[in-house]
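Q: Got a minute? One more chain.
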Amino acid sequence: MHLNELTALSPVDGRYRSRTATLAEHLSEWGLIRCRVEVEVEYFIALTQIPLPPLANFSKEAIEPLRDLYRNFSEGDANRIKELERVTNHDVKAVEYFLKEELERLGLAEVSEFVHFGLTSQDVNNTAIPLSLMRATQHVLRPAFGALRKKLVGQAREWKGVAMLARTHGQTASPVTVGKEWAVFVERLDVQLALWDQSVYAAKFGGATGQFNAHIAAYPHIDWNAFGQSFVEKSLGLTRSRITTQIEHYDHLAAWCDGLRRIHTILLDMNRDVWTYISMDYFKQRIVEGEVGSSAMPHKVNPIDFENAEGNLGMANALLGHFSEKLPISRLQRDLTDSTVLRNLGVPLGHALIAIQSMEKGLGKLLLNEDRIAADLDANWAIVAEGIQTILRREGHPQPYEALKALTRTHGGINEAAIGQFIDELDVSKAVKDELHLLSPATYIGGAAGLVDLLQD
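A: Always. Here it is, folded:
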Protein backbone atom coordinates (compact mmCIF):
# COMPACT_ATOMS: atom_id res chain seq x y z
CA MET A 1 0.00 0.00 0.00
CA HIS A 2 1.06 3.56 -0.63
CA LEU A 3 1.47 5.71 2.45
CA ASN A 4 -1.39 8.17 2.78
CA GLU A 5 -3.96 9.28 5.34
CA LEU A 6 -5.77 5.94 5.05
CA THR A 7 -2.72 3.70 5.32
CA ALA A 8 -0.70 5.64 7.93
CA LEU A 9 -0.01 3.60 11.06
CA SER A 10 -0.59 6.50 13.43
CA PRO A 11 -3.88 8.46 13.43
CA VAL A 12 -1.81 11.60 14.02
CA ASP A 13 -0.57 11.26 10.42
CA GLY A 14 -3.65 9.42 9.18
CA ARG A 15 -7.18 10.20 10.34
CA TYR A 16 -6.14 13.51 11.91
CA ARG A 17 -3.57 14.61 9.34
CA SER A 18 -5.50 17.72 8.38
CA ARG A 19 -5.45 18.82 12.01
CA THR A 20 -1.75 18.21 12.63
CA ALA A 21 -0.26 19.27 9.30
CA THR A 22 1.01 22.58 10.69
CA LEU A 23 3.42 20.65 12.90
CA ALA A 24 4.94 18.76 9.96
CA GLU A 25 6.99 21.75 8.84
CA HIS A 26 8.89 21.56 12.11
CA LEU A 27 8.68 18.04 13.55
CA SER A 28 8.41 15.67 10.59
CA GLU A 29 11.43 13.83 9.21
CA TRP A 30 11.55 16.50 6.50
CA GLY A 31 11.48 19.23 9.15
CA LEU A 32 14.30 17.64 11.13
CA ILE A 33 16.47 17.21 8.03
CA ARG A 34 15.84 20.82 7.03
CA CYS A 35 16.93 21.98 10.49
CA ARG A 36 20.05 19.85 10.27
CA VAL A 37 20.89 21.53 6.96
CA GLU A 38 20.31 24.91 8.59
CA VAL A 39 22.64 24.10 11.50
CA GLU A 40 25.38 22.81 9.18
CA VAL A 41 25.11 25.84 6.88
CA GLU A 42 25.13 28.36 9.72
CA TYR A 43 28.07 26.56 11.33
CA PHE A 44 30.00 26.70 8.06
CA ILE A 45 29.22 30.42 7.74
CA ALA A 46 30.34 30.99 11.34
CA LEU A 47 33.67 29.33 10.55
CA THR A 48 34.16 31.79 7.71
CA GLN A 49 33.70 34.66 10.15
CA ILE A 50 36.57 33.59 12.47
CA PRO A 51 38.05 33.24 9.85
CA LEU A 52 39.95 29.98 9.67
CA PRO A 53 42.98 30.40 7.37
CA PRO A 54 41.61 28.30 4.46
CA LEU A 55 38.40 30.34 4.63
CA ALA A 56 40.06 33.74 4.91
CA ASN A 57 39.18 34.68 1.34
CA PHE A 58 35.64 33.32 1.44
CA SER A 59 33.35 35.67 -0.45
CA LYS A 60 30.53 37.24 1.52
CA GLU A 61 28.45 37.08 -1.65
CA ALA A 62 28.30 33.31 -1.24
CA ILE A 63 26.62 33.50 2.18
CA GLU A 64 23.03 34.12 1.08
CA PRO A 65 23.10 31.39 -1.63
CA LEU A 66 24.25 29.03 1.13
CA ARG A 67 21.36 30.07 3.36
CA ASP A 68 19.00 29.46 0.47
CA LEU A 69 19.87 25.76 0.83
CA TYR A 70 17.70 25.62 3.95
CA ARG A 71 15.39 28.55 3.24
CA ASN A 72 14.33 26.90 -0.04
CA PHE A 73 14.69 23.32 1.18
CA SER A 74 12.41 21.01 -0.81
CA GLU A 75 11.09 17.47 -0.64
CA GLY A 76 13.45 16.72 -3.50
CA ASP A 77 16.38 17.85 -1.37
CA ALA A 78 15.20 15.66 1.49
CA ASN A 79 14.81 12.70 -0.86
CA ARG A 80 18.38 13.19 -2.06
CA ILE A 81 19.60 13.11 1.54
CA LYS A 82 17.59 9.93 2.15
CA GLU A 83 19.25 8.38 -0.92
CA LEU A 84 22.64 9.20 0.53
CA GLU A 85 21.58 7.81 3.90
CA ARG A 86 20.75 4.47 2.27
CA VAL A 87 24.44 4.30 1.31
CA THR A 88 25.99 5.77 4.48
CA ASN A 89 23.50 4.24 6.93
CA HIS A 90 23.99 7.48 8.86
CA ASP A 91 21.46 10.31 8.70
CA VAL A 92 23.73 13.21 9.65
CA LYS A 93 26.60 12.05 7.42
CA ALA A 94 24.10 12.04 4.56
CA VAL A 95 23.39 15.72 5.25
CA GLU A 96 27.12 16.43 5.15
CA TYR A 97 27.50 14.72 1.77
CA PHE A 98 24.45 16.55 0.41
CA LEU A 99 25.94 19.89 1.41
CA LYS A 100 29.27 19.03 -0.17
CA GLU A 101 27.41 18.31 -3.40
CA GLU A 102 25.68 21.66 -3.12
CA LEU A 103 28.92 23.52 -2.40
CA GLU A 104 30.41 21.97 -5.52
CA ARG A 105 27.37 23.15 -7.48
CA LEU A 106 27.92 26.66 -6.09
CA GLY A 107 31.60 26.61 -7.06
CA LEU A 108 32.83 26.19 -3.48
CA ALA A 109 34.27 22.68 -3.72
CA GLU A 110 37.70 23.79 -2.47
CA VAL A 111 36.28 24.60 1.00
CA SER A 112 33.74 21.77 1.23
CA GLU A 113 35.76 19.87 3.86
CA PHE A 114 34.81 22.57 6.33
CA VAL A 115 31.24 21.29 6.22
CA HIS A 116 30.76 19.39 9.51
CA PHE A 117 34.33 20.35 10.47
CA GLY A 118 35.27 18.75 13.82
CA LEU A 119 31.68 17.91 14.66
CA THR A 120 29.96 14.78 15.85
CA SER A 121 26.42 14.04 14.72
CA GLN A 122 25.00 15.09 18.07
CA ASP A 123 26.35 18.60 17.63
CA VAL A 124 23.91 18.77 14.74
CA ASN A 125 21.03 16.75 16.23
CA ASN A 126 21.18 18.42 19.63
CA THR A 127 20.85 21.81 17.97
CA ALA A 128 18.43 20.90 15.17
CA ILE A 129 15.97 19.16 17.48
CA PRO A 130 15.58 21.96 20.07
CA LEU A 131 15.45 24.45 17.19
CA SER A 132 12.57 22.59 15.55
CA LEU A 133 10.83 22.09 18.90
CA MET A 134 11.13 25.78 19.79
CA ARG A 135 9.61 26.80 16.47
CA ALA A 136 6.80 24.24 16.67
CA THR A 137 6.01 25.50 20.16
CA GLN A 138 6.11 29.19 19.30
CA HIS A 139 4.42 29.04 15.89
CA VAL A 140 1.89 26.23 16.31
CA LEU A 141 1.19 24.89 19.79
CA ARG A 142 1.40 28.10 21.83
CA PRO A 143 -0.98 30.00 19.50
CA ALA A 144 -3.40 27.04 19.70
CA PHE A 145 -3.43 27.32 23.49
CA GLY A 146 -3.96 31.05 23.10
CA ALA A 147 -7.02 30.54 20.88
CA LEU A 148 -8.50 28.06 23.35
CA ARG A 149 -7.89 30.44 26.24
CA LYS A 150 -9.62 33.25 24.34
CA LYS A 151 -12.67 31.03 23.89
CA LEU A 152 -12.72 30.18 27.60
CA VAL A 153 -12.37 33.81 28.67
CA GLY A 154 -15.24 34.84 26.38
CA GLN A 155 -17.54 32.20 27.86
CA ALA A 156 -16.45 33.01 31.42
CA ARG A 157 -17.47 36.61 30.90
CA GLU A 158 -20.72 35.69 29.16
CA TRP A 159 -21.77 33.38 32.01
CA LYS A 160 -20.17 35.16 34.96
CA GLY A 161 -23.54 35.95 36.57
CA VAL A 162 -25.29 32.62 35.89
CA ALA A 163 -25.68 30.96 39.29
CA MET A 164 -25.08 27.21 39.34
CA LEU A 165 -25.29 24.60 42.07
CA ALA A 166 -21.80 23.50 43.06
CA ARG A 167 -20.85 20.02 44.14
CA THR A 168 -18.10 19.10 46.55
CA HIS A 169 -17.50 15.37 46.94
CA GLY A 170 -20.40 15.00 44.52
CA GLN A 171 -22.80 16.55 47.04
CA THR A 172 -24.65 19.85 46.72
CA ALA A 173 -22.61 22.83 47.91
CA SER A 174 -22.59 26.63 47.99
CA PRO A 175 -23.53 28.02 44.56
CA VAL A 176 -20.97 29.30 42.12
CA THR A 177 -21.47 30.80 38.69
CA VAL A 178 -20.79 29.05 35.43
CA GLY A 179 -18.42 31.82 34.41
CA LYS A 180 -16.44 31.59 37.64
CA GLU A 181 -15.92 27.86 37.13
CA TRP A 182 -14.54 28.62 33.64
CA ALA A 183 -12.33 31.32 35.14
CA VAL A 184 -10.78 28.80 37.52
CA PHE A 185 -9.43 26.85 34.57
CA VAL A 186 -8.30 29.99 32.76
CA GLU A 187 -6.22 31.14 35.72
CA ARG A 188 -4.72 27.69 36.17
CA LEU A 189 -3.77 27.69 32.50
CA ASP A 190 -2.32 31.20 32.74
CA VAL A 191 -0.01 30.20 35.58
CA GLN A 192 1.28 27.07 33.87
CA LEU A 193 1.55 28.65 30.43
CA ALA A 194 3.62 31.46 31.93
CA LEU A 195 5.99 28.87 33.42
CA TRP A 196 6.09 26.92 30.16
CA ASP A 197 6.86 30.11 28.25
CA GLN A 198 10.08 30.33 30.26
CA SER A 199 11.25 26.96 28.92
CA VAL A 200 14.91 26.75 27.98
CA TYR A 201 15.63 25.23 24.58
CA ALA A 202 19.05 23.83 25.34
CA ALA A 203 21.65 22.61 22.87
CA LYS A 204 24.89 20.70 23.07
CA PHE A 205 27.78 21.81 20.87
CA GLY A 206 31.28 20.61 21.70
CA GLY A 207 32.57 17.78 19.54
CA ALA A 208 32.64 14.02 20.04
CA THR A 209 32.59 14.00 23.83
CA GLY A 210 31.91 17.61 24.65
CA GLN A 211 35.24 19.45 24.85
CA PHE A 212 36.18 20.32 21.24
CA ASN A 213 39.04 17.79 21.05
CA ALA A 214 39.30 17.84 17.25
CA HIS A 215 38.82 21.59 16.95
CA ILE A 216 41.57 22.32 19.47
CA ALA A 217 43.90 19.79 17.85
CA ALA A 218 43.51 21.55 14.48
CA TYR A 219 43.43 25.17 15.68
CA PRO A 220 44.65 25.36 19.30
CA HIS A 221 44.86 29.17 19.34
CA ILE A 222 41.10 29.64 18.87
CA ASP A 223 38.74 29.87 21.87
CA TRP A 224 36.37 27.19 20.66
CA ASN A 225 34.26 27.28 23.79
CA ALA A 226 33.50 30.96 23.21
CA PHE A 227 32.88 30.22 19.52
CA GLY A 228 30.40 27.44 20.41
CA GLN A 229 28.62 29.68 22.90
CA SER A 230 28.24 32.47 20.37
CA PHE A 231 27.17 30.15 17.56
CA VAL A 232 24.45 28.37 19.56
CA GLU A 233 23.07 31.42 21.31
CA LYS A 234 23.48 34.17 18.69
CA SER A 235 23.27 32.30 15.38
CA LEU A 236 20.63 29.74 16.41
CA GLY A 237 18.84 31.48 19.29
CA LEU A 238 19.20 28.52 21.64
CA THR A 239 20.81 28.11 25.07
CA ARG A 240 24.08 26.20 25.13
CA SER A 241 24.75 23.57 27.78
CA ARG A 242 28.44 24.21 28.36
CA ILE A 243 29.64 21.05 30.11
CA THR A 244 28.27 17.90 28.49
CA THR A 245 29.02 14.41 27.31
CA GLN A 246 28.51 13.55 23.64
CA ILE A 247 24.89 14.58 24.02
CA GLU A 248 22.75 17.31 25.52
CA HIS A 249 21.63 16.08 28.93
CA TYR A 250 17.96 16.81 28.15
CA ASP A 251 17.13 18.15 31.60
CA HIS A 252 15.59 21.26 30.08
CA LEU A 253 13.66 19.16 27.57
CA ALA A 254 12.35 17.05 30.45
CA ALA A 255 11.18 20.24 32.17
CA TRP A 256 9.48 21.32 28.92
CA CYS A 257 7.67 17.97 28.79
CA ASP A 258 6.61 18.19 32.43
CA GLY A 259 5.35 21.74 31.95
CA LEU A 260 3.26 20.69 28.98
CA ARG A 261 1.91 17.71 30.93
CA ARG A 262 0.67 20.03 33.68
CA ILE A 263 -1.11 22.17 31.08
CA HIS A 264 -2.69 19.06 29.60
CA THR A 265 -3.75 17.86 33.05
CA ILE A 266 -5.66 21.11 33.61
CA LEU A 267 -7.43 20.62 30.29
CA LEU A 268 -8.18 16.99 31.17
CA ASP A 269 -9.78 18.18 34.39
CA MET A 270 -11.95 20.69 32.55
CA ASN A 271 -12.97 18.20 29.86
CA ARG A 272 -14.26 15.82 32.50
CA ASP A 273 -16.15 18.59 34.29
CA VAL A 274 -17.80 19.82 31.09
CA TRP A 275 -18.66 16.23 30.16
CA THR A 276 -20.33 15.89 33.58
CA TYR A 277 -22.26 19.15 33.18
CA ILE A 278 -23.56 17.90 29.83
CA SER A 279 -24.63 14.62 31.44
CA MET A 280 -26.49 16.67 34.10
CA ASP A 281 -28.27 18.56 31.30
CA TYR A 282 -26.71 21.88 32.37
CA PHE A 283 -25.63 22.23 28.76
CA LYS A 284 -27.28 21.20 25.54
CA GLN A 285 -25.14 20.79 22.44
CA ARG A 286 -25.75 22.64 19.21
CA ILE A 287 -27.01 20.14 16.63
CA VAL A 288 -24.92 19.90 13.49
CA GLU A 289 -26.91 18.97 10.39
CA GLY A 290 -26.08 15.47 9.23
CA GLU A 291 -24.18 14.39 12.36
CA VAL A 292 -25.09 11.08 14.01
CA GLY A 293 -24.71 10.60 17.78
CA SER A 294 -25.36 6.88 17.86
CA SER A 295 -25.72 4.24 15.17
CA ALA A 296 -28.58 2.72 17.16
CA MET A 297 -30.19 5.53 19.18
CA PRO A 298 -31.35 8.40 16.95
CA HIS A 299 -31.95 10.84 19.83
CA LYS A 300 -28.35 10.99 21.04
CA VAL A 301 -26.02 13.97 20.76
CA ASN A 302 -22.85 12.69 22.37
CA PRO A 303 -20.12 14.92 23.91
CA ILE A 304 -17.65 13.44 21.43
CA ASP A 305 -15.42 16.51 21.19
CA PHE A 306 -14.64 16.47 24.91
CA GLU A 307 -14.15 12.71 24.85
CA ASN A 308 -11.80 13.03 21.89
CA ALA A 309 -9.86 15.76 23.68
CA GLU A 310 -9.58 13.70 26.85
CA GLY A 311 -8.28 10.67 24.97
CA ASN A 312 -5.70 12.64 23.01
CA LEU A 313 -4.49 14.53 26.08
CA GLY A 314 -3.97 11.20 27.81
CA MET A 315 -1.97 9.88 24.85
CA ALA A 316 0.16 13.02 24.80
CA ASN A 317 0.88 12.87 28.52
CA ALA A 318 1.83 9.20 28.40
CA LEU A 319 4.51 9.94 25.80
CA LEU A 320 5.67 13.16 27.45
CA GLY A 321 6.05 11.29 30.72
CA HIS A 322 8.26 8.70 29.03
CA PHE A 323 10.37 11.45 27.42
CA SER A 324 10.79 13.21 30.75
CA GLU A 325 11.87 10.07 32.57
CA LYS A 326 13.97 8.46 29.83
CA LEU A 327 15.85 11.20 28.00
CA PRO A 328 17.99 12.55 30.88
CA ILE A 329 19.40 9.05 31.41
CA SER A 330 22.14 7.75 29.09
CA ARG A 331 24.93 5.23 29.66
CA LEU A 332 28.33 6.89 30.10
CA GLN A 333 29.09 9.28 27.23
CA ARG A 334 26.04 8.22 25.24
CA ASP A 335 23.83 5.39 24.13
CA LEU A 336 21.44 5.45 21.18
CA THR A 337 18.16 5.16 23.08
CA ASP A 338 17.66 8.91 22.88
CA SER A 339 17.74 8.84 19.08
CA THR A 340 14.72 6.64 18.50
CA VAL A 341 12.76 8.33 21.31
CA LEU A 342 13.39 11.83 19.97
CA ARG A 343 12.12 10.80 16.56
CA ASN A 344 8.70 10.61 18.22
CA LEU A 345 8.84 14.15 19.58
CA GLY A 346 6.16 15.37 17.20
CA VAL A 347 3.68 12.65 18.19
CA PRO A 348 2.58 14.04 21.59
CA LEU A 349 2.41 17.51 20.08
CA GLY A 350 0.14 16.10 17.39
CA HIS A 351 -2.13 14.57 20.03
CA ALA A 352 -2.07 17.87 21.95
CA LEU A 353 -3.07 19.86 18.87
CA ILE A 354 -5.92 17.45 18.11
CA ALA A 355 -7.14 17.76 21.71
CA ILE A 356 -7.02 21.56 21.73
CA GLN A 357 -8.97 21.76 18.47
CA SER A 358 -11.55 19.23 19.67
CA MET A 359 -12.03 21.07 22.92
CA GLU A 360 -12.44 24.41 21.17
CA LYS A 361 -14.98 22.84 18.81
CA GLY A 362 -16.89 21.29 21.70
CA LEU A 363 -16.99 24.55 23.64
CA GLY A 364 -18.40 26.25 20.57
CA LYS A 365 -21.32 23.81 20.49
CA LEU A 366 -22.36 24.35 24.13
CA LEU A 367 -25.80 25.82 24.75
CA LEU A 368 -26.43 26.84 28.37
CA ASN A 369 -29.61 25.25 29.75
CA GLU A 370 -30.49 27.94 32.28
CA ASP A 371 -33.90 26.43 33.09
CA ARG A 372 -32.31 23.16 34.19
CA ILE A 373 -29.64 24.95 36.20
CA ALA A 374 -32.25 27.18 37.90
CA ALA A 375 -34.46 24.20 38.71
CA ASP A 376 -31.55 22.41 40.37
CA LEU A 377 -30.85 25.47 42.50
CA ASP A 378 -34.48 25.84 43.53
CA ALA A 379 -34.63 22.18 44.54
CA ASN A 380 -31.74 22.61 46.96
CA TRP A 381 -32.54 25.36 49.44
CA ALA A 382 -30.44 23.61 52.06
CA ILE A 383 -27.34 25.16 50.47
CA VAL A 384 -28.14 28.59 51.98
CA ALA A 385 -27.67 27.06 55.44
CA GLU A 386 -24.01 28.05 55.33
CA GLY A 387 -24.90 31.71 54.88
CA ILE A 388 -27.62 31.63 57.56
CA GLN A 389 -25.43 30.05 60.22
CA THR A 390 -22.57 32.44 59.43
CA ILE A 391 -24.81 35.52 59.88
CA LEU A 392 -26.13 34.01 63.12
CA ARG A 393 -22.55 33.51 64.33
CA ARG A 394 -21.99 37.21 63.66
CA GLU A 395 -25.03 38.01 65.79
CA GLY A 396 -23.87 35.81 68.67
CA HIS A 397 -26.79 33.40 68.31
CA PRO A 398 -26.15 30.20 70.32
CA GLN A 399 -24.98 27.15 68.35
CA PRO A 400 -26.15 28.28 64.88
CA TYR A 401 -24.21 25.58 63.06
CA GLU A 402 -25.84 22.84 65.11
CA ALA A 403 -29.29 24.36 64.60
CA LEU A 404 -28.88 24.41 60.81
CA LYS A 405 -27.41 20.93 60.87
CA ALA A 406 -30.49 19.62 62.67
CA LEU A 407 -32.73 21.36 60.12
CA THR A 408 -30.97 20.37 56.91
CA ARG A 409 -29.61 16.88 57.62
CA THR A 410 -32.93 15.18 57.05
CA HIS A 411 -34.17 12.83 54.39
CA GLY A 412 -37.06 15.14 53.62
CA GLY A 413 -36.67 17.99 51.15
CA ILE A 414 -35.67 21.37 52.54
CA ASN A 415 -37.53 23.89 50.45
CA GLU A 416 -37.97 27.64 50.52
CA ALA A 417 -40.90 27.38 52.93
CA ALA A 418 -38.93 25.27 55.43
CA ILE A 419 -36.04 27.73 55.39
CA GLY A 420 -38.46 30.65 55.74
CA GLN A 421 -40.20 29.06 58.72
CA PHE A 422 -36.86 28.38 60.39
CA ILE A 423 -35.86 32.02 59.98
CA ASP A 424 -39.19 33.32 61.27
CA GLU A 425 -38.85 31.25 64.47
CA LEU A 426 -35.36 32.53 65.28
CA ASP A 427 -34.83 34.72 68.31
CA VAL A 428 -33.18 37.55 66.40
CA SER A 429 -34.17 41.05 65.37
CA LYS A 430 -36.49 41.73 62.45
CA ALA A 431 -33.62 43.38 60.59
CA VAL A 432 -31.56 40.20 60.81
CA LYS A 433 -34.57 38.09 59.76
CA ASP A 434 -35.09 40.35 56.76
CA GLU A 435 -31.41 39.93 55.90
CA LEU A 436 -31.69 36.16 56.13
CA HIS A 437 -34.84 36.07 54.01
CA LEU A 438 -32.88 37.69 51.18
CA LEU A 439 -30.67 34.62 50.90
CA SER A 440 -31.60 32.24 48.10
CA PRO A 441 -29.76 29.60 46.07
CA ALA A 442 -29.85 31.87 43.02
CA THR A 443 -28.33 34.88 44.78
CA TYR A 444 -25.96 33.23 47.26
CA ILE A 445 -22.98 33.43 44.89
CA GLY A 446 -20.53 35.56 46.84
CA GLY A 447 -18.03 37.42 44.69
CA ALA A 448 -18.08 34.98 41.78
CA ALA A 449 -18.77 37.57 39.09
CA GLY A 450 -15.98 39.81 40.36
CA LEU A 451 -13.50 36.96 40.16
CA VAL A 452 -14.23 36.58 36.45
CA ASP A 453 -13.45 40.28 36.01
CA LEU A 454 -9.89 39.57 37.22
CA LEU A 455 -9.12 37.72 33.99
CA GLN A 456 -6.94 39.54 31.49
CA ASP A 457 -7.63 39.56 27.75
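A: The chain has a mean pLDDT of 94.
Q: Perfect, thanks.
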